[in-house]
Amino acid sequence: MNSNRWVNIVEVGPRDGLQNEKQSISFDDKIELIQRLSRAGINYLEAGSFVSSKWVPQMAATQEIFSYLKDQSNSKRTYAALVPNLKGLESALKTEVKEIAVFIAASESFSKKNINKSIEEAVATTRDVINEALKHNIKVRGYLSCVLGCPYEGQIDIKTVVQLTKQLIDFGTYEVSLGDTIGVGTPFKTRELIRALKEEVPVSKIAGHFHDTYGQALANVWVSLEEGIRTFDSSIAGLGGCPYAKGASGNLATEDLIYMLHNSGYETGVDLQKLIDAGDFINSVLGRETNSKVAKALAKN
Questions:
Q1: How many other C-beta atoms lie within 10 A of the C-beta of residue 26?
Q2: What is the pLDDT of residues 90-136, one digit of tens each?
Q3: Taking Cα atoms as reference points, which of 55, 95, 88, 57 lies closest to residue 73?
Q4: Which residues contact 297 (CB under 8 A, 6 or more apart)?
Q5: How would residue 141 be classed by pLDDT, with cut points 50, 70 and 90?
Q6: Three-state DSSP class for residue 118
Q7: Bridge partners, residue 103, by sequence
């Protein structure tokens, strides 16, 4: 295996994809989705979030899910959880979770509207969570949202993104995933941002999380690959809409990402057909059509 041709996939469907779904999804169906994704060769899954079920009812079973999965984690497969604060970390520790993700936004307005904290307050909370997690030998991945645009502020200053990325890495995250939260980024803007980041942080510590609201996600992945990034977040069947653009697609579909990578000389270890089957399963549970163009095209053949 040529390591430069290997791309890591972070599957966020079970968490980011399902968290805003209106209908209730059973514990058994969530476990079935996670297991189908694992059998397809996905080795990193974000399986839930330790947040208040009052605010995110879909994540109410996260503790039970991780208690169930704890015996299935190994050196090759990671089940991670999003943890917003120390209370969430306390819950995560009870399930012996091995890895968590933390998040901050590069937009002051978005941070206040999303978590009711300023960037400075969010950074302080995140630092405390990271410090406590590392004490328990839990690996920490970072999310930085709104890196290419904000629904309230528009364009975000690249210097702000670079500064916050550096802070997350300095605090102890092994990787920071750059989130184009509303999907407004273009290949030109993506390359410009990555090149600015590469002057300050190792490219091996940067990942990409692109939304497809404006149809730019795969193009942004491509320029990221050219700049040396080798880890990308995506969501099975394109689960997870963009709340700021009604009816628009949100997360990049994992099927579409895998198809492009495999047909461009990259390796992922993922079986595309098994991945599509996993997407068919969760779409049948939700009673909806897939947002994956590849899954739709192959279904017609």
A1: 10
A2: 999 999 999 999 999 999 999 999 889 999 999 999 999 999 999 99
A3: 95
A4: none
A5: very high
A6: coil
A7: 143
Contact partners, residue 246, CB within 8 Å, separation at least 6: none
φ, ψ of residue 271 to 5 degrees: the values are: -90, 110
Candidate list 242, 272, 276, 278, residue with the active-site label: 242
- pLDDT for residue 45: 97
Q: Which residues contact 259 (CB under 8 A, 6 or more apart)?
A: 272, 294
Distance CA 138, CA 130 (A): 9
Q: pLDDT for 246-296, tens place per residue?
A: 555 689 999 999 999 999 999 999 999 999 999 999 999 999 999 999 999
Mean pLDDT of the residues in the chain = 94
The pLDDT assigned to 250 comes to 86
Find where tokens 């895998």 sit.
Answer: 258
For residue 242, indicate whether it is catalytic. Answer: yes
Q: What SS3 class is residue 123? A: helix
Which segments within 235-296 are labelled E, that is strand? none
Short-list 269, 282, 238, 290, CA closest to 38 = 269
3-class state of residue 180 by DSSP = strand
Cα 159 to Cα 149, 168, 183, 191, 197, distances in angstroms: 13, 14, 20, 14, 9
Domains recognised in the chain with CATH numbers: 3-300 (3.20.20.70)
H or E segment and range at residue 48: strand 44-49
